[in-house]
Amino acid sequence: MKVQLRWITPDALEHIEWDARLCYDSHDKIKEGSAAKLVKACVNKGHHSITEHASASFYVSGVTRALLAQMTRHRHLSFCVRSQRYCKENPFTYTIPDNLTDDAKVALVAQMHSAQTAYNNIVSMGGKPEDARGVLPNACHTEFVVTANFRAWAEFMPKRTDRAAQGEIQQLANLLQGILQAECPAVFGSLKI
Ligand SMILES: Cc1cc2nc3c(=O)[nH]c(=O)nc-3n(C[C@H](O)[C@H](O)[C@H](O)COP(=O)(O)OP(=O)(O)OC[C@H]3O[C@@H](n4cnc5c(N)ncnc54)[C@H](O)[C@@H]3O)c2cc1C
Description:
Blueprint: E1 2-8, H1 12-22, H2 34-44, E2 55-64, H3 65-71, E3 78-81, H4 102-124, H5 129-132, E4 141-149, H6 150-161, H7 167-183, H8 185-188
Antiparallel strand pairs: 1-2, 2-4, 3-4
Helix pairs in contact: 1-2, 6-7
The protein binds flavin-adenine dinucleotide (FAD).
């Protein structure tokens, strides 16, 4: 799994402060250190929409289609995903979960080879990738760009860093959270939305 921050709103905290202070006609109160205090105070009283004025975008690769299915349930995240209609999955790569026994890993790998063979056969018989993809597994890797505002990221993190979340998406959520906390600690260090 690879996660790369593509971009984040520059000076996000200061922008959010300026936008929020518009509501209170208090731009004159902007000073060193005022942004973090104001943003936390607003969020604590439920004024969450102010965090929608900053965004972050990531490039994620080497993750499974199973992860993608879970990620896309979050309705405020925006995606561009590698297409299995237009891109040939030959060869496709996949993830073998660490927590499988050795025998189970062998069984999974055998199934991946079989899926690849079936996919190649269908394409060589004139099948389009969009039809041949029917034999591809959930473990097949994909890549995507995902963009969201800070509020949407803050809502996503607790659900997917939780120990109840599936292992792979938990790993991704922890990586995303680590990057966002380093980039904007005042928002992602304490936000409880
Ligand atoms: C551990 C775990 C297990 C899961 N297991 C399953 C499963 O077995 N089957 C399954 O189908 N799904 C499962 N899910 C997915 C889950 O049901 C949600 O679809 C997913 O977590 C997205 O979260 P969300 O719906 O809270 O909000 P998001 O789509 O991320 O939106 C963020 C917030 O916006 C608000 N919001 C968004 N849309 C609406 C709306 N239409 N109406 C009102 N408020 C809205 C809500 O406050 C919401 O919390 C699982 C999720 C987790 C974390």
